[in-house]
Design a protein that fits this description.
437 residues; mainly alpha; Na+/H+ antiporter like fold; 15 helices; 72% helix; 0% strand; globular
Length: 437
């Protein structure tokens, strides 16, 4: 029997999606990230494949494609949920500042650690390796924080999205310097501004054109256009993820972007229908792509690399630096209420994707991929512990409130029982009422 027959692949793919849906249910009940369960599933499949296939298979091209599409879908999914209102300005600025400072400080410290402990590591290469390890994973955070209070949930969506975008821009800027395509900061800033202008023009154009398309099957056409814009932007060395982010913000905040004279060009009903359908398609596509990405990543993991003492030492130092820096930044911007936000700092899809995008000129043979795996699993487990603890704390608080309300009800009932009976009103007694003759 052929192992990789069409029907066998369909069966395996279907079972993976079903298990992923089940993992999401487990995640909601236990706060264990479904990503960890998908990675474990991939590791199990790795050993199953080795039993039937003697020659090693190259999954890296599939991992890269899944990572790129997953990244686009996740950022688009996050942008579609962001509302731009006046009362949101300060939370957005705060989240942006925390994401930026946290990323730069974490990357700097991680680069120093890698430079000191990894053989033949130059400082520039250290920065390239450190940047993916410093980016928050919106692929893990956004599905995991749904149970938090609205204010904290909103903060994590903003922060992780900004961390993704800024981290990717920073990585490709450093990669361009290494590949000899380096540009000055002024030129790079100009490129960012150009990308924003192109993104705004493209966003307005896409919405105005697609609202006139009467065909029902146009959502995947829209996604194809976005994928095309992203890929062309990468070929032109633009920050393509900004195009996806701005399009999501424009279509989710059409009243803001189509105000004044532009309002007459917008068909409200059709535009909102496009937004609603796109939101559903993006959510479903991100779920499927995220599922296969982390399963394939699990298949490619080399568990033996975790047994190295050097890997453990470097990884632990990086983990300590992540939470020490995060503690300081959160305390400065958010005061004392920093739990469980302090421990919600997982690394994931973008970390893996950028790691495989490191230019050949910057590759260091002495770097152990186990560091990547150690940090991803470590940050996810710490987040799991913090979320479970927060859930128990919230449950305890709710139980205490329920007990307090019950005690108050009992006290009110007791007081009512102890009140003396009111003396009868003589006027209410018919025999004592004055008779009118």
């Amino acid at each position: 029997m052929e192992i990789f027959s069409s029907y066998n692949l369909i069966i395996v793919a279907s079972l993976i999606i079903i298990l992923s849906f089940w993992f999401n249910g487990i995640a909601k009940r236990t706060n264990i990230p479904s990503v960890l369960l998908l990675i474990v599933l991939g590791i199990i499949l790795q050993y199953v494949i080795k039993i039937f296939v003697k020659e090693p298979l190259n999954f890296l091209p599939a991992l890269e494609v899944l990572g790129i599409i997953g990244l686009i879908m996740i950022v688009l999914e996050a942008a579609l949920e962001l509302e731009l209102k006046r009362d949101k300005i300060w939370p957005i600025i705060k989240a942006l500042s925390i994401a930026l400072l946290g990323l730069l400080a974490s990357a700097w410290v991680a680069a120093q650690i890698l430079y000191q402990f990894v053989p033949d590591m130059s400082m520039h290469s250290a920065w390239l390796y450190a940047t993916p390890l410093s980016i928050l994973s919106s692929a893990i955070i956004i599905p995991s924080v749904s149970g938090l209070v609205e204010k904290k949930k909103e903060f994590h969506i903003y922060e992780s999205t900004f961390s993704d975008i800024i981290g990717i821009i920073m990585f490709y800027f450093l990669a361009g310097q290494m590949e000899g395509q380096g540009t000055s900061a002024a030129v790079f800033s100009g490129t960012i501004l150009l990308t924003i202008v192109i993104a705004l023009v493209a966003s307005y154009g896409i919405i105005l054109i697609f609202q006139e398309i009467k065909s029902q099957a146009k959502q995947f056409l829209l996604i194809a256009v976005l994928l095309l814009l992203y890929s062309l932007g990468k070929k032109l060395h633009l920050s393509s993820l900004i195009i996806i982010l701005i399009f999501g913000l424009v279509i989710s905040n059409m009243k803001l972007f189509f105000g004044g004279r532009l309002k007459r060009f917008l068909n409200q009903d059709r535009a909102h229908q496009i937004y609603h359908e796109l939101h559903i398609i993006t959510l479903e596509t991100a779920f499927v792509v995220r599922t296969f990405f982390f399963v394939v990543f699990g298949i490619t993991i080399v568990l033996s690399s975790l047994l190295s003492l050097n890997v453990a030492l470097v990884s632990l130092l990086i983990l300590l630096s992540i939470y020490a820096i995060r503690f300081v930044v959160l305390r400065v911007f958010m005061g004392s209420d920093i739990l469980p936000q302090l421990f919600i700092a997982p690394r994931g899809l973008i970390t893996v994707l950028l790691f495989y995008a490191i230019p050949k000129e910057a590759l260091v043979p002495g770097f152990e991929p186990g560091i990547l795996l150690f940090v991803i699993i470590g940050t996810s487990l710490i987040m799991t512990w913090a979320m479970i603890k927060d859930k128990r704390k919230m449950g305890t608080m709710l139980d205490a409130l329920d007990a307090e309300f019950e005690a108050r009800d009992e006290a009110y009932e007791t007081e009512e029982e102890q009140l003396p009976e009111a003396e009868p009103d003589p006027l209410q007694d018919e025999d004592n009422r004055p008779q009118i003759t």
